[in-house]
Amino acid sequence: MGSAVITARAAATFEPVGRSVATARAFVRDTLQGWGYNDVVDDAVVLTSELVTNAVIHAGTAADVLCLRSAEGVRVEVADHYPEREVPLQSSGIDFGSPDRENGRGLLLCAALASRWGVEYSPTRKHVWFQLDLPDRPVGIRSAGPVLPTSLLPVTDQRVRVAVVQIDSTGAISAWNEDAAHVFGHTAEQVAGKQFTDFVAWPHTPGTSTGIADALQLSRWEGSYGIRGADGRTIPVYASHLRVRDNDGDPSTVCLLVRDDERAVLQSPVRAPVSDVSSDNRTADPFEVFIGSPAPDDLDGLLQRTVERARDMLDADAAFLLLATDDETELEVRATTGLPSARQRFARVPVEAGTGRYGSARMPAVHEDLTAVPGAVPLLTDTGMRSVVTVPLKVEGRLTGSLGVAAENAGRYSNEEALRLQFAADRIALAVESARLGELERLRRGSLSFLVEASDLLAGTLDRDQTLALMAQMTVPTLATWCAVYTIADQSSDPYLSYVLHEDEDLIDGLKALLSKISPPDPVPTPGARVWSAPAEAGHRAAVSTSTRALAADAPLSMSTATRTTLATAQAVGGETVVLPLVARNRVIGMLTLGKPSDDHFRQEILELAEDLSRRAALALDNARLYSERTAISQSLQRSLLPPGLPDVPNVEIEVIYRAAGEGNEVGGDFYDVFPISDGAYGFAIGDVCGTGPEAAAVTGLARHALRLLAREGFGGPAVLERLNAAILDEGARSRFLTLLYGELWPREDGSALLKVVCAGHPLPLRLRQDGSVVPAAEPQPLLGVIDDLELYAEEVVLDPGDVLLCVTDGITERREGSRMLGDDGLAEVLSTCTGLTAGAVAARILRAVERFAAEPASDDMAILAMRIPEPQPQQS
């Protein structure tokens, strides 16, 4: 301290543990307050906290703290015992290091706050000192304003009157002095016993929600409001409230009131911001002095730095900061220090904490002992904190958050600490709100992008299982660590665990097993997320049971794979789990369950995003269900339109290949049939109904069943088709054109087969002879369903051993690749290469040739009916 005379000295050494920082702060505070240096206590505590943190946390050694008093001020020295470090060159000056590093902030703060400071190095010691000069104030004056000209002094009446009003615990007036009667015109007898609020005109400032009833409940309060005088006019006053209690313990509030233009009589001087001058003679920014420079550019970093600074400023054991929701009805925990941080992060508490109209979160509040008012600060329940001071963060009169500090001892804080903390909160409120709005905008943009991508993915599939998988994969890990999807088949069915996903694939099986053992969540249709505690409770019970068995068996837990799996699963579900209903078309079709392993609460923004996703996913899932049901019905109907099997025809090989176009969601199309008639005769048919859908399916079913019925009644081929034509025309508007190849087959004893064929508008059947030649086996005749009077005739064909009769639908002959079409000639060319093949091989070769003809999938149904007369096998001698 130069030539200054040291008048007192205090020293202490603190061990290299985190708790030593708070102990060092308390040591410096108690020392300086004992010396009467209250004016520099706050700055000394902040600087000591930073320097001791560097020593015990970053350097990892004990810290020596020395306080020296002189008439000019106080000097504090902090030294560590780092075993070895490089001594910087004297010419290089002081190196602050990167301002973003934790261990660089102490020197930056020294430069900003201290009157003088310095650093001394040795190979095994770093010695940082700072000096804080006392303000030049006359003895006995706590604080004072500047000397002003007489013309600038506040104007008062000839006599300044201070109205003294006492309000009992019920809010009634119990005392009213002569000055109150003179100022307001009401005598003490007129107001005694009446509610004080009956005389108060409280200013309703837009965006604020504070009331006189709340002000009367605080231990100390200052502010402006109005008193209605006896003449009905409202008299603006400035008030100072003090909450007291009598010998019986009954509380009351003493109010000192002066006219508002005479407020200087009562108004407490505002603690001026730090006005230290930096090395370049520029005044330091109060925000940067409190937060440190540079300020974090992200919201979480800014909030965490804020609570740490607030804790240090008031020598607290813990600090916390909550941000208000958009509607100001709730506060969300965003940063804490000194508290079980994980279990409280993103938790929400209501703003309106009391039964009255206004909540304490909108005004500074001091709780001297939380044990006297359990639950007054829900965040501190079961944390061991006894005293707490909270102040609001406001921007343009709107509540944006709440900042609080707490201590383990009762009675640590008073109204003075609340004013100091409010001063700091006012300096950071705008920066915090700006950072919050920036983060919110980024979240909203990300949410919109996420939902657009999710909608595209969900709209790209109609498969139920794939929809479930997409739903889970979009959720994990973007929104949660794990998720489970429950589905409900119908209103009478219980929820079924359909899909489980965890970001760690090794935990999926264990998680699925755990969820399968507990009852599913109730399918409540109420929108929004609700907490589901069953998984965490079941995981805890399973972990305790498994650990108990392992200990009883005297076996290390690490040796049992099953035990490790159980414990890992319990940890996975140990955090918060929420359930969102999947509602589609006014029906709950399932539940989306989200979980995380930590004690963090889900952020409201995440839950809102998950709710939007659940609505889209529910509709996609229901669409997939409807599509699956429709597909199943279509396929069932399609199967009913085709014969269940082919009969065994003596000495004739028969093979049928049927390929439906598309994804199986249409019925109608092509059909075929082979059936016995009587007396060794068999009927066969292959046809194509114009169009698809229910109307075409009706004609398909009519044709196939009419053919069997009429043929078994003894009608020949032309008569069968003529009667079928009449039946189709009788359908009226539902009728459809029908191309049909119908024939009757009689196997002969000589190994050949006689066929009588009618080709009604259908692609002509092709006959393959043994010599490889291919010729049509029938002549074209009119199709069915067009004209009433048909004159059809049957054509006889004899198939010799080795011959093949190939019947196809137009999906084969009209196969296209650009402007090319397979056609009848192309089909005949392929068939000519099938000499000597069985009926099955012939049909397979035709299908392969058709599929290879074009790269695109077939757009029409395809049916192939191949009949072959096998060659006689040589007899073995």
Automatic annotation (TrEMBL):
<dbReference type="InterPro" id="IPR003018">
    <property type="entry name" value="GAF"/>
</dbReference>
<dbReference type="Pfam" id="PF13185">
    <property type="entry name" value="GAF_2"/>
</dbReference>
<dbReference type="InterPro" id="IPR052016">
    <property type="entry name" value="Bact_Sigma-Reg"/>
</dbReference>
<dbReference type="InterPro" id="IPR000014">
    <property type="entry name" value="PAS"/>
</dbReference>
<dbReference type="InterPro" id="IPR013767">
    <property type="entry name" value="PAS_fold"/>
</dbReference>
<dbReference type="InterPro" id="IPR003594">
    <property type="entry name" value="HATPase_dom"/>
</dbReference>
<dbReference type="Pfam" id="PF00989">
    <property type="entry name" value="PAS"/>
</dbReference>
<dbReference type="GO" id="GO:0016787">
    <property type="term" value="F:hydrolase activity"/>
</dbReference>
<dbReference type="Pfam" id="PF01590">
    <property type="entry name" value="GAF"/>
</dbReference>
<dbReference type="InterPro" id="IPR036457">
    <property type="entry name" value="PPM-type-like_dom_sf"/>
</dbReference>
<dbReference type="InterPro" id="IPR029016">
    <property type="entry name" value="GAF-like_dom_sf"/>
</dbReference>
<keyword id="KW-0378">Hydrolase</keyword>
<dbReference type="InterPro" id="IPR036890">
    <property type="entry name" value="HATPase_C_sf"/>
</dbReference>
<dbReference type="InterPro" id="IPR001932">
    <property type="entry name" value="PPM-type_phosphatase-like_dom"/>
</dbReference>
<dbReference type="Pfam" id="PF13581">
    <property type="entry name" value="HATPase_c_2"/>
</dbReference>
<dbReference type="Pfam" id="PF07228">
    <property type="entry name" value="SpoIIE"/>
</dbReference>
<dbReference type="InterPro" id="IPR035965">
    <property type="entry name" value="PAS-like_dom_sf"/>
</dbReference>
<feature type="domain" description="PAS">
    <location>
        <begin position="164"/>
        <end position="200"/>
    </location>
</feature>
<protein>
    <submittedName>
        <fullName>SpoIIE family protein phosphatase</fullName>
    </submittedName>
</protein>
